[in-house]
Amino acid sequence: MTTTPKRTETVKRSSVLLGAVTIRREALRASAAACCWLLCATPLASAFAPPSPAFASRPKIGGPAAAGGVSRPRFAPPAPLGAQLDLTAEQQHAKEVFDEVDEEGNGNISPVELGSMLRMLDIDATDDDADALFKYLDADGSGAIGFEEFLPWYTDAAEAAKESAATFQGIILGRRTVNLFDKTPVADDVLKRAVNCAISAPNRGCSEPWRFISLGEETVAKVAQLNKDMGGDEGSFTTWTSIPGWCVVTCKRTHGDLDTEQEDFKSVCCAVQNFMLSLWSEGIGSKWTAGPVQLTNEFAELVGVDTKEERVTGVIWYGFATGGLVSADPKERKKGVEDVLNRLP
Questions:
Q1: Could you tell me which residue ranges the EF-hand domain spans (predicted)?
Q2: Domain closes at, from 118, 147, 172
């Protein structure tokens, strides 16, 4: 098959799109009793690179990539849509959106309509990207594409996104509380990224009720001494001062409005979960702690908290886990999905 320079450039642009376009999915919209919710409003991962094995096994146009060629997936003629009885939920949604943007109702869409469809499917693509993809899918040059032409490309993209989602979910399912830490300090950039994820947590009316206070060695020593003065033993003092990372988390008070204060507390719980998951994703363990020391005015004064305006919701210890994250206690859950998920008609 002869490839013209114009066609080669179009395929190159579409190949770039395959590697650059990302699917943004709002996933795991669950709220447990501890408000363990995560999503920092970032793409899960590239939905189109690297290509799936199914793509890799298909014929290529233009020769090996090393020679400057670009691969183009080729698909067997699809069965009539009516015969496709087992569409996945993602495919059914794509069909629903396709029908919605198909303003003429003739079963075909234009380049502009394709751009609208990509956005409605949470695929981040510029107008130029959409135009390149349209030319890529419109192999017969008819100036329109049907759903059957769009579906195979989108199916592979959705499958790649599922693989990324599995990695994302693995971080959530794999996180454990770490009790023992090495002394090596954690880079400040890691802390900043964790806080950035934390403040992306859901919060009613964008109230942003949280504050994060990073404690240095001097302040940690004072807190450890306070704990000792309150009855803690010498071992606790040594242990506390050896923990490399301390972050106090607060929640603002809403005087005379307990409902709002409770909602804000839920938001802070979400933020703490985001914080710890971000750390875990970078190989850093953490532990959300509480205790009588944190309830005292002396502690509040040491860490700079005005108890009239905010309350301490906990202290997060963090650092490199002694023995690695794999040494963390897995603590098997007592209940599974079917134990806690109820379905009503």
A1: 89-124, 125-160
A2: 172
